[in-house]
Amino acid sequence: MEFPLFGQTVAVDLVNTLWAQGGRIVDALDSVGGANRWLVAVADNRLSDGTTLQEAAGAVAVRLRDEPFRAALAELRDQARDVLIAGANARRPTARSLDAVNRSAAAAPSRLQARVDAQGGWSLQRLRQPPLSIAVLAALAEDVLATAALGTGLIECTTPNCLGVFVQDDPRRHYCSPACANRARVARHYARTHGGADPAS
């Protein structure tokens, strides 16, 4: 797996670009190529306001080609992680994280533009001014703020050592992915059949 995409908000997918696998931390944004692959993968995913990331960035091809953009994206992810986890745990995020996400959102102000087709159907498009990197970061930051403010169902995965965050869309769901749910089932089975012994020993 190159990076987890849970099909939820892009903000959740952004935070989950940092995950634990095989006892180590994996970062999908640790290179320009990796960060570009992630952006391309989520470009057509819906943000909290209903637009796609590509639409929110000005309807241009979303690409990441330089180290400053990659570093800014990774920094936004780290600040977003604090904001979303605070929302998941009904606590205040650090002032530094919230200020950083607010600054990113304000860096590329947007406006809505309405269109009416020949049949009278309305559509809205959110427009931002270039450059692309600032527009993408602003759209992601707005999605982080909207996701955190809603807070409904936003939780951390309950699997030990997992860094996943997700929107709990089913009250029985406690894990970010089927892999984490399976690890928990295996651990429960091992504990039952081995008298509560630690499966790692």
Looking at the chains present, what oligomeric state does this protein adopt? Answer: single chain
What shape does the CA trace take?
globular
Span of the ends, CA to CA: 27 Å
Number of helices: 7
Mean pLDDT: 81
- Beta-strand portion reads 5-15%
Unreliable segments (pLDDT under 50, ≥5 consecutive)?
Answer: none
Major sheet: 2 strands, antiparallel
Number of strands: 6
Percentage of helical residues? 40-55%
Biggest sheet, spatial arrangement of strands: 1-2
**Structural class, please?**
alpha+beta
Return Rg in Å.
19 Å
Question: How would you summarize the topology of this molecule?
Answer:
Elements: H1 10-15, E1 18-21, E2 24-27, H2 32-42, H3 53-56, H4 67-88, H5 95-106, E3 110-116, E4 122-128, H6 132-150, E5 154-156, E6 165-167, H7 178-193
Antiparallel strand pairs: 1-2, 3-4, 5-6
Helix pairs in contact: 4-5, 4-6, 5-6
Report on the structure:
The chain has helices at 10-15, 32-42, 53-56, 67-88, 95-106, 132-150, 178-193, and strands spanning 18-21, 24-27, 110-116, 122-128, 154-156, 165-167. The protein is an alpha+beta fold and 201 residues long. It has a two-stranded antiparallel ribbon with strand order 1-2. Helix 4 (67-88) packs across helix 5 and helix 4 (67-88) packs parallel to helix 6 (132-150). The radius of gyration is 19 Å and the shape is globular.
